[in-house]
Amino acid sequence: MATLDSLWRVRLIALASQIMKVAAAQISCAPGDLNANVAGTDDGVTFCGTSAIIDPYGAIVAAASVDREELIQAEISEDVIRSVRSRMAVFDHRRPELY
Q: What's the CA gap between 62 and 69, in Å, rounded?
């Protein structure tokens, strides 16, 4: 459950920021622990793995397994980034003078 909830958060970050996002197995199965960067078991703590590559729409374009180490890869399309930014112009509402 921690993996699913955390992956949804990463997907929402990708969508809100309109960027490609890579979640590199940073999710621990321990309640409240989202800072680990490993998969498997380390010092008695089991990590869920599930690395993922997420596009600017929040769609998972590649995902790793939860039960083994593996490499994942995906193509990054500038057209997809341009498309999401033209459909949802969130950057038009920035106020750089405030920061």
A: 14
3-state secondary structure of 4: helix
For 33-75, the pLDDT digits (tens) are: 444 345 566 677 666 667 889 999 999 999 887 777 778 899 8
Asked if 85 contacts 98 with a C-beta cutoff of 8 angstroms, the reply is: no
Judge contact between 56 and 12, C-beta under 8 A. no
**Number of structural domains the chain divides into:** 1
What CATH code is carried by the domain that includes residue 69?
3.60.110.10
Which residue range is the domain that position 30 belongs to?
2-98
